[in-house]
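pinning this so it doesn't scroll away 📌
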Amino acid sequence: MKNIYYSILCLLVAGITFTSCDNYLDDVPKGYKTPTTLADFEAFLRDEYTNQSVNVEQAVNLMNDRYRTIADLAYYRLTKANYYWDETADRVVLNQADETTYYGSYAGIASFNLIIENALTTTEATEEQKRVVWAEAKVLRAMNYFNLVNFYADTYVASTASTKLSVPLITSADINAPSKQVTIQEMYDFILADVKDALPYLPKVSQTALHPNLGAGYAFYARVYLQMNNYTEALKYADLALAENNQLYDWTAYYTANKAVIDVPNSYTTTPSPMGYNYVENYTFRHGDLTYLNVERNIPIARAQRFEAGDARFLSRWKIRTVGAETYYRTTLSGMFNFGGITTVEIYLIKAECLARAGQISDALGLLNTVRKTRILPASYQDITTTDKTTALNAIFKTKNNELILTLIPFADARRLNAEGVYKVSFSKVENGTTYTLSSDSHLWTMPFPQGAVKNPGNGTLTQNVAK
């Protein structure tokens, strides 16, 4: 898809303040046009390299889902602190760069605000067409806020959500728009309201993979409600999403078709990624942090060992490699990767978790095994069977973490489970004779705001959510 740039795109300036599109458009540069038609505003949804990119690099580093080279860890001090779970490091001080997770997310929100403010009064479109674009922008804005609140604020806990601060809420693209650092509860209420507004107008079939459809709206609702530990509503919307799209991609067939290339010893010739715009599992497609490149991230040996034996998806994506003193699993796919959107496999596993928590273990495992049959090679496959809720849930969590590796979701799930206190997530590793651990109650599970945002919060205030 073509990356569409408009010179009138609201650019992020000091802290969280945005350039006023209204003021800018008072003096349009020669050779450029003022957006007036619906197509002019809809083009912002297609700006995939700005508005459809989701960067959660430091969360991935904390999870150790991405391999970091010796050179990376020597140079990037914040990365090293998260990768080695250094609780003594002052990450607030180390986070001096203009972090893409923060600024990129708010740049996208500025564009979505612009669409929401103007779409319904544009020209050259029917009322129905206007409402569709307006609704799509509402969903994408909500998705950006969900990513932000699950990165820079503590996870949702009903008893404390009304007292703990989250992230700044901005609903206007104007330069003087006030920003208020709302509570976690207020932010979740806003996210849910945005999707509720959008659902009646979302089309069943997307204009492109970048445009959220009705299935995407239901799927995102399921994700949000799961994060709020509302399993009844999460299950309800998971069912609605799967009614729109329940397709699963057959990774065992992909591996078989490409086995002659994949299995060549010491060869790292890539095969095409099926996880692009036309991936059958997509509800909506959004890039991760590698928007401009056509490869995904390498992963550490320890992380590779957490995949099931015979996992065709893993075997098709990474292969062990040693370069000098470093050994890791190198990526072997090239193409596009839906690391920021939503896919059916996530919704299958959300539904499975909800059913397991309700005591419907057999039904939950039926869904889990439905997913696994498209992933695990027949020679290695066995149904997971148990009547124990904890065993079933742990199997669901393991599969979900593997399926959604390199996205925000394993990080968000870990925070949710740690807050619940029953299925806690912690990590331990030994490197060069030193043992490193990440406890379930570590302050590292909440990322600090970049210093620039705190020092220059625009028309509002911004309080750091962690001490270090």
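📌 and the second one:
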Amino acid sequence: MKRWLSHAQELLVASLSDPPHELNELDWKLALSSDKRRLTEHLSAMANLPGGGTLVFGINAHGLPADVDQAGVEKTVTQLANLGRDALDPPQIIEHAVAEFRGAQLLWVHVPESAVKPVHLRGKSLEDAFVRSGASTRRASRQEIGTLMLNSRTPRWETLNATSLLTDAQVTAALQVRPILAMLGRPVPSSTEELLAWMVAEDFVRPNPSGGNYVTHLGAVAAAENLADFDDVGRKTVRLIVYEGTNKVVTRLEQELTQGYAVGFQSLMQRVMAVLPQSEHIEQGLRRVKTVYPEIALREVIANALIHQDFTVRGAGPMVEIFDDRVEVSNPGGLLPSKQVNRLIGTQPESRNELLAKAFRRYRICEERGSGLLKAGQAVEEAGLPPIDFTAEAAYFKVTLRNPRSFARMTVRERLEACHQHAVLRYFSGTTMTNTTLRARLRMPEKQRPMVSALIQEALDMRLIKPADPDNKSRKFAEYVPYWA
């Protein structure tokens, strides 16, 4: 039995107890009214009601049930469905069922609560919204309209359906959530019912009031057994490509992460680290293999690409591309309007996919505190790599990590960005940049102090940094902070 129908039958039993009385959540009638406007007002009120409401046809004025006929059912359902679609803003979809009650066949019409409120008469103002009060339908007051607006929410991409209606077995086959439960330190539920209840609480699954379930975009992206099974996210698989040389002419390896991002993230990182250039080092008498690029930097950059991509961009997904001299991590969608390329390190966290970002933080894949790129930048400096390169275009965003190179081999842009990022990292560590700290970051000896001083002056001229103390006239002991500090 449909969940809403079971609840409505319980309400009808209470409503018909002596003396018979209607409820806000339930309105019973013998037959359909000819007053279309009044019917539309009822639909508006039910859609604005927490949990929605149900209209029951086949109950007379004395509270006695009477059978509904087929013609009456078809007429009622068609008219109410048309009114919900054409006479309300936003349009509403109704559900219905014919079910026995106390020996009579009744028509039950359910109006689900609308996520977007207030639901009002189409072509009218918001003040033409209706509510249920004292078991009757009336026009909403201005205060009630304000309350409805506060409780309104535009559906997020993550909460939209990624599938058609699925059975419980189909849902549990489409999603693999055991790795996520392990990340959370939770035991695997002992029954399918408990497992589905957890998926619903996790926003992976949305139950249908009439039975069955929908997998949400969040559930598919995070926990899909195979992303290709979901039409909307089938092209969001992560592509790992390794090229010969420094261009894309010859491809040496290409793989796809077909699993959901959360359940497949560790596997993705293992694949990436396995194909990176490596070198051997002797530490405490033991031979150790290290990659050119710090794993923590790659982890943060790749996690950001997965989380912050624009999922509404069709036909494109995240990519990790490895060249002989660099690693490029890109994702569909440009920066949010509130973000600036030169303010990404240490900035306050903000994502177009808030539910996905929150989930990844709980799974300990990312931090969602704004410190991820700080850690990446620190690791890049410690490894002696050129600064992190951010490229923001209208349709994509790309982060590039480059092989170690000396100051002499860096471009002017790289030198200036190294100076700027070093000042940022020092600032967020509670200290300032000096000629000495910048020389250490660039692996330059004392005799090259004048060369570093010239770089600092150029960064000052470009307004990438500024003196920490404007009144200090000594160049030798000068300290610097980012331009925005």
